[in-house]
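Support request, please re-run this one:
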Amino acid sequence: MAAGALIRLSFTLASLLSLHDPAYGIDWVPTDAEMARYRESWNPPTHGTTFTSSADLARQGQWYVRAYVQGQIGSGQYVNSPSSTSTATPFSPDAVSPAAILYYGLTRHVSVAMGVSWIYWRSDKPDSEGNTSGGGIGSTSLIFKYRPIVQNPDSWRPSISLYTKLSLPTNRWFGTPEIPGGFTPLSRVPSSRFEAAAVTEGLLFRKNVEPFRITGNVFYSYNLPGPSSTVGMTAYAGDLISSHLALEHVLDQRTGFGYLLEFATLNQLTTRLDGHPTNTTPASFWLLGVQPGLEYTFSRYESGAKLVGAIGVMFTIAGQNDIRAVYPNISFKYFFDQN
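Re-run finished. Output below.
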């Protein structure tokens, strides 16, 4: 029911956005005129937001790769009530997770991607087997993004994309130990449980208003039943809703220098799409965070290839039943020849 509601909401919002722009009807495929008008509008080749996934796509036939590293520096556990402070008991789960994602523009309206990640962690709280550190391969993801509506630079209408992601628990298959308290950071897009396969559906938007870009999204993640810390039991965790809203201000179009401000939320529900009762502890949690960041274009070539980067730190500012932490991160994107 929740998935059906999300899909209906996505299509309803997209339809309303089109219907309120009388110059363009909705046919779920942007016209040549719409694409040409958008490509001629202001849209400098910067890194863009770090963790707020954009509605825009890689151009047809274009490859680009993103390599990034995010860390987690834990400082406590939020209490079982909405709060901006954590418990006094010291709890420091620290982690570093490098990742790489390869993107490809399949058509003018569809992009696909594949991502892999790794993780190393240490904690003053041992896991169920007494380990205070561990590492190995993380999750693997397959991503499909479809953009039925491209923004009109002459009106307020944004670009809108529909997003599907399959997360595979390769960490479990390769025996990577889970960090105590879990590693479901605010900054990961979208979030899923460490040892569970997950299916995510999302709605994304982006609007360019020189010299700003406004980007946002909302994701719903269904985590398949997975292993439990209790021997002989299967974990049925609640589904996850995550959202992001970001402002990008391009200060120097020539160098791609600008600043980013991103807001993120993460919420685990007490219900599941399959209707099975949840049995994980805590039954639910939520986090609210903010990330300031900077971006820069390091190199640009006549062929259209370019290397861009961004750096930032995500801070949790409030939450319930989850880790209080900061998430420093650095990201690089390399766009292969585009001409």
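Residues 39 and 153 are 10 Å apart (CA to CA). Confidence is low (pLDDT under 50) at residues 1-9, 16-25.
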